[in-house]
Amino acid sequence: MALWRRGGLRARLLLAHLIVIAAGTLTLFVVTLFTAPTLHDRLMVAVLGPGHTAAQDPNMAAMEQATSAIFQTATQQALLLSGGAASLVAVAVSLVVSTRIVTPVRQMLAASRRIAAGHYAERVPAQGNDELAALAAQFNTMAGELEATERRRVALIGDVAHELRTPLATMEGYIEGVIDGVLTPSDETWALMQDEVGRLTRLVRDLQALSRAEAKQLALHPSLIAPAALIAQAVARLAPQYAEKAVALVRDAPADLPTIEVDPDRILQVLVNLLGNALRATPAGGRVQVTARHSADALAVTVTDTGVGIAAVHLPHLFDRFYRVDAARSRGLGGHGIGLTISKSLVEAHGGQIWVASAGLGTGATFSFTLPLRQP
Length: 376
Hints:
Layout: H1 2-6, H2 9-48, H3 58-116, H4 131-179, H5 187-214, E1 223-225, H6 227-245, E2 248-252, E3 260-262, H7 264-281, E4 287-294, E5 298-305, H8 327-332, H9 339-349, E6 353-357, E7 365-372
Parallel strand pairs: 2-4
Antiparallel strand pairs: 1-3, 4-5, 5-7, 6-7
Helix pairs in contact: 2-3, 3-4, 4-5, 5-9, 6-7, 7-9
């Protein structure tokens, strides 16, 4: 038992095999030694016939005793030889089998240690269709997720630094200009610096929201609300901006849509974000339409624009944090590239889904999301 507790997996497997071998060999010896004499006597009677007994023929009695002794001796020697050979073969096979079982486990153990040390590119071979191969495949999937998470973490640090650098550099330039006398401290200068401070404030607020969203710590306060009223509120909030840019905003949400149990402020945030993105992507004279329909178990909302469209290469990444199709244009308009990420988290927190579709550049885009009519 001490060996069992101290030994590794290979030693335990080998010891288990040896116990099985010993039990099987002992059973073979006991059963053979107890049953062989009786079987021998029965076979002798069957061959010689019931009339040839030891009482009728003394020579036959001596012959039977000699034959029985020879048979028992031969049986014991055969058992010793065959049992020893079988045990050696079984031990060899056990070594091979235990090695084949332990090797993948050791590979995963070594890989897990390297991953723990920060080497997230480690993978283990996954061969075959057994449970160990499935475990190796799942291990590789886990390692891939950790590697992707680490890449996102590094990218997040770089993106945040980049987002902070621009307003800070602008403010630093204004302050140096004022100190050197190049710029006159005027209301316009202070207003420009206030704009940059506002950008920093919005970035911090968005980062806080993104952090809570990705940590699944969004606070939801659901209540029953009519979808048409919620969409009307979002349209009313952005109507002045649409009018200023001369972009038509069309609302198609029947008043008889079933009520939904959601957090109105969170879903309004999603609608405002989608409508705002559509406005930025649509030139003057274009058109944006928000539509709401329902099925037996879900409400579907779509925001369709006639804007610049989205290339296929960008579609899988639009909901990634800090991802921009046109970085310069988005930054100029004050976006940080995390609005869609937050929207995705908000929709999923309500049990819904969100996606985007576009036929390509110049064809516009359609953002859609669904919300369950009945919350789980």
